Amino acid sequence: MAKLFLFGIGGTGSRVIRSLTMLLAAGVEIKNCDTVVPIIIDPDARNGDMNRTVELLKTYARLRKSLEPAPAVGDFFHTDIKTLSAIAQSGSGDVKDAFVYDFGNINESFRDYLHYDRMPVESRHLVDLLFTPENLASPLTVGFKGSPNVGSVVLNGLMGSAEIQAFANNFNEQDGDRVFFISSIFGGTGAAGFPLLLKNLRYPDLSGGQRLPNEKALREAPMGGLSVLPYFKVNPSAESAIDSRFFITKTKAALSYYETNLRGLNSLYYLADPVTKSYDNQEGGANQTNGAHFIELVGALAVFDFMAHSKAELQGQELFFEYGLEKDDRPVRFGSLDADKSMQLLGRALTRFQLFATFLTHGLPGTMDAVFAKTLQLPADWKHDDFYRALRELLDNPAYGFTPWLKELATNDRAFAPFQLGSADYNDLVHGQRVETGFFDKGIVTNSLRKSLDDSATKVTHTTRPGQFVELFSKVMRETVDSKIKGF
Amino acid sequence: MFQQLFTSLYQALLGTPAPSSLIPVYQKSIFPGVGLSTFFAVALGMALVYYVVLNRLMTTALFKTSHWLLFVLLTALASAVLAYSQAHSVVTESLNSSGVALEGIEQSAYNRYVLGFLCVNALFGALFFVFWSFVVKSFSTSARTTPVRWPN
Question: Yes or no: is domain A3-104+142-323 CATH 3.40.50.1440?
């Protein structure tokens, strides 16, 4: 059972994991991996972006629990997502069953965290040299406010934690386990956390800190990272410590640090886009909920790319990747992606899932007494069964659902808008790829989908009812998209 | 066999045909003819149209129980029309060949019996359609569970 330990560091880490989860829900295959184990590292416990990603992950995991044995490769929800404590076989006694690293509610200032007032005067002078008075006074409850120098100190404390010990304990190189880090380079938490975690996980013996179990396995394990360069800015605000005018400067400084100090990575993915979008300036907290962005979706593709490489390919010299759009379009459509790679990876899968979501919204209520619905006992189970409730949450929850995610992507800048959202016309689902219709062929309509579902309902092989539901819909949506929607 | 079967069925609900001069015509020709036509041509035909043509060969939205009930009613109606037209044409032909005409009480007895006959045949048509539904529905794609999932 190969696992991917996915460290999402800071707000960008959470947002990329959100996109990745949507792609996994859509059935995009993550090679060489059965289970993804996300570990979100963000000291800002109330961060809106983080919390909605966590809710999404919890919903996915809940839903996925009903789907054992796993759906087939390419079917919706094929890949499992589990918490660290759920996969742990040993050494996880103190680890909470959560996707987020537990910072234990840091509610003190950075000054108090350092015990500044108890330091010898020489140490205080050194601290004064490295940190501004604002840094020292800053409460850590909302994270590091874009200050990597603060983050690097606080995050160093991670290594002795039960979570990291449990991670190392359960890392099994023989199974093909891998590690991937997702972070931004222009903020505080991600920029500081990524190199720190990499160094401490890869070379715990050299870092002078806490030693880890399985050090040899970790030293040889494939590790990759995504570093996201500035792709948005924030509105100027006198009350906020975050000023996006410094994003580029901070990026340059971090890159120059990475150039000489980032060691031990097998693959590094860089991602950037000319900045056009300004978000509200929130230092952190519940109000920091940036709309989903195309760059985060592309960031998620880095994980798929990393996992698609064989271990042998990754164990030569360090590999570096950047991403280029086939066409510099605004908004981005499927036709803007390169036909051989990105389009193959996500075009059909996202379309299948969107067709599925559209049918469940517009088609299912009128087909509850159809053969497929009766066979799956949907009239009885749809409203109250845990699996279907989780599915509806995953698709439609206004904070973290698939449909709101697509809407956010479509209204951001640069927008990713491949679908005609809100329309019940399946033939017009994909922008620029309208289904051909004729006198005898109405294309994709509720009746044709229902008939295909009816036809396949008795052929499903899964042993559980939710498994049959996923198998049936995956099959019919695949056949419909492949046969009717041209251009993939 | 069919003659005996259908005669027994119709007479169980309608009583002996009236006027009595038409008893042989009903028992030998009308009951078995209408019974067989209703059972095979009308009820089976309608069931095949509903389950195979509309809900397998064609892509329609007529898979619901309400649509099935509509077909029960249509089958009953067709069975009633069949009963009336068959009875009328056979009786007319019989009377013409024997040179006898129905008058007065006989005519009104005939009218009452035919009315009862078409009502009973409508009921039989509906029942036969229900019977054929359970036989034929496994050949359907979209109405395999209409009106109920059993036995599929």
Answer: yes
